[in-house]
Design brief:
Blueprint lengths: L1 H7 L6 E7 L15 E3 L4 E6 L2 E6 L4 E7 L6 E4 L3 E5 L4 E6 L5 E6 L5 E9 L2 E8 L3 E9 L3 E10 L4 E6 L5 E6 L3 E6 L5 E7 L5 E6 L5 E6 L3 E6 L4 E7 L10 E6 L7 E6 L3 E6 L6 E5 L9 E6 L5 E6 L2 E7 L1 H6 L7
Antiparallel strand pairs: 1-28, 2-3, 3-4, 4-5, 6-7, 7-8, 8-9, 10-11, 11-12, 12-13, 14-15, 15-16, 16-17, 18-19, 19-20, 20-21, 22-23, 23-24, 24-25, 26-27, 27-28
Organism: Galdieria partita
Pfam family, one: WD40
Protein name: DUF2415 domain-containing protein
């Protein structure tokens, strides 16, 4: 499989693999929900395995249990101080990493939690949660005398939402769901719906904003990623998966590089392949086969390092790490590795 596409097609090279750590294999609990790899630093990633959230140091080749949950997580979010994990039957746990004390541990409803997001907005830390109860929850995490998760609102949604992403300026929340729509909420105006648009007839399962907020992307189960110019919401690109037959080509996770000057976006297929896309020229994409065998390799998610110089991909065969050619991307209009 991997030799076939390389023999026929010649792709630009934005990233080169430098590490494969086989002892860390993220566990996928729900076949559609595959945002299960998050970055801590340029050499550390966080993943789910069974009931645990693990920190993996790729330079030292060490996997460390960060926290053992009481349920198998379907989604999680993490920053330098806080971990939030959602699971089946409305299960949610939010805790402070330094001492393990909890903001919340229990159930929100009785349906699977699809996406949880911890994010900083100005001087407050927010947590967003969406689930199959057709609801969008927003909380503020407070660390004064006690740890509190203060509810800012619970809003009924027109469909089951699968993923959310907050714009870089903290004003707009992008959400996607089973109806194939994206919905944009104004966080500063009591979550007023700014706009919505049906991208696909299939469920949309992942979304992301570019670092400068100029673009947003939606990944759909219809084998495509849709790229929009955020100010006008004009569709500027449709990016297709390599595998267009059956479930393997479903696009599951899309993310932009956090370093805006690199103008790179990456997305995963259900199995076997990831794509890196040059936002300056959408015709230039790097296709990477993930794995070392011809059998299907499930992909659990991907993430860029905070500086944008590395890309990490979690799969059923371990974690793959790639160097991004940042010097070439900064120096030339269409820079690639040689």
């Amino acid at each position: 499989m991997s030799e076939g596409y390389e023999d026929i097609y010649h792709f630009p090279k934005f990233a080169a693999q430098y590490c494969h750590y086989k002892l860390a294999t993220p566990t996928i609990q729900h076949w559609q929900l595959r945002d299960l790899v998050h970055c801590g630093s340029s050499e550390e990633v966080y993943i789910t395995e069974g009931y645990g959230i693990y920190k993996v140091n790729l330079r030292k080749q060490v996997k460390t249990l960060l926290h053992q949950l009481e349920f198998k997580p379907t989604c999680f979010s993490i920053d330098e101080r806080t971990l939030a994990a959602g699971g089946p039957n409305g299960k949610l746990k939010v805790l402070r990493l330094e001492d393990g004390r909890t903001f919340f541990a229990g159930n929100l409803g009785n349906q699977v939690n699809n996406s949880v997001l911890i994010t900083q907005r100005r001087n407050e830390k927010l947590l967003f949660l969406v689930n199959n109860s057709r609801s969008l929850h927003c909380f503020r995490l407070e660390e004064e005398c006690t740890l509190e998760m203060v509810g800012l609102g619970c809003f009924e949604t027109p469909t089951c939402l699968n993923h959310v992403s907050l714009s870089p300026d903290g004003r707009l929340l992008l959400a996607v769901g089973d109806s194939g729509e994206y919905i944009i909420y104004n966080v500063e105006e009591d979550f007023r719906v700014v706009s919505s648009f049906r991208v696909s007839l299939e469920p949309a399962v992942s979304c992301s904003w570019s670092a400068n907020g100029q673009y947003f992307a939606v990944a759909s189960q219809d084998d495509r990623v849709y790229l929009f110019q955020s100010e006008t919401e004009k569709l500027v690109g449709r990016l297709s998966s390599w595998q267009s037959n059956g479930f393997r080509g479903a696009c599951r996770c899309v993310k932009f590089s956090p370093c805006g000057v690199l103008d790179l976006m990456a997305f995963t297929e259900h199995a076997n392949f990831i794509h890196l896309v040059d936002i300056r020229d959408l015709s230039r994409t790097q296709l990477e086969f993930v794995g070392e065998t011809e059998r299907d390799i499930d992909i659990a998610g991907l993430c860029f390092s905070p500086q944008g110089d590395k890309l990490f991909v979690g799969s059923s065969q371990g974690i793959y790490a790639y160097h991004i050619g940042t010097a070439q991307r900064r120096s030339f209009g269409k820079g690639e590795l040689t």
